[in-house]
Amino acid sequence: MSTLDLPILNGTRFRARFETELYAASKITTLQINIGYVCNLACHHCHVESSPARTAPQDNMDQATARRVVDWVLAQPSIKTVDITGGSPEMNPNFRWMVAKLHRHGLHLIDRCNPTIIEYVDRQSGEDYRWVPAILADNHVEVVASLPCYSQANVEKQRGRGSYNASIEGLLKLNAVGYGKDSALRLNLVYNPIGPHLPPPQDALQADYKRELESRFGLIFNELWTITNMPITRWRHQLQRDGQLEAYMTMLIDAYNPDTIDGLMCRHQISIDPQGRLYDCDFNQALGLHTPGMESSYIWDLSADDLADRAIATDDHCYGCTAGCGSSCGGAIV
Ligand code: SF4
Ligand code: SF4
Q1: Band of the pLDDT at 26, cuts 50, 70, 90?
Q2: What is the pTM of this model?
Q3: 116: containing domain
């Protein structure tokens, strides 16, 4: 059964068309950890359906699992990068010591940060996240911060009222500790479309973001990465509600670009959920689509070498990664 189950896909099913091109991973150099699904926001396009309500124990990595994952990383010579995502990763209580320990051992770290978290105060516990910029800077964590537009109206349409000003304030606090300025402190922003279309060309949009954010706020960053909205979970439901799902899928299928295959993130990394279970990417994780043959395995059951050349679980949502210039965890592919 397709994850989308659309009549329009008859004869164009991703798996049937492209199995030979996208059949296996290559060397695994990156572990992407989804440390938990709790987030202070609940964005319309969120593929992992994060929100402040995702506080159940199984939705967030516990300390014992976090320790097992860190021990696993340190025993794998081929893993050079640990990419921590969520939710808002900083809301997991294990985040701080994980980045400190991995940094001490020379790993390159990425935090997929929603910059409003820096301004957020939990009303019930009173906990705040003012510590985030300094901890990230101390551990040379590369920050990949979501900001779906440089205009207030577009950001708030996707992320809710108040999210724009909080994002700008959070990003300025990252600038204040050296992000975007110091070569060891990279700050990349992520754009995703507000409506049912592909991202515009990345370089031109980056120039627009740099001009607008610097002139309005004095805000600086390194690169802008464009990411396509995947036709799954919340974004799929929105398209269905608006009667646009078939048109969106047709657009993705028509824009299929085989040159994107080599750069797909599933070919160079492995993704785990808060329990340590294995997926080829965070999108497959959101769909519960495990790495084939590893449905009952945890990351510590295998080595990184075991995960190279593994089969990848694909389905029709993979058109989202392969349309146009492509879309990966580092933005456009070609
Ligand atoms: S900030 Fe990111 S993780 Fe949180 S709800 Fe929005 S898209 Fe999801
Ligand atoms: S959704 Fe994208 S990254 Fe995930 S398996 Fe499909 S092509 Fe690869």
Answers
A1: confident
A2: 0.95
A3: 7-322
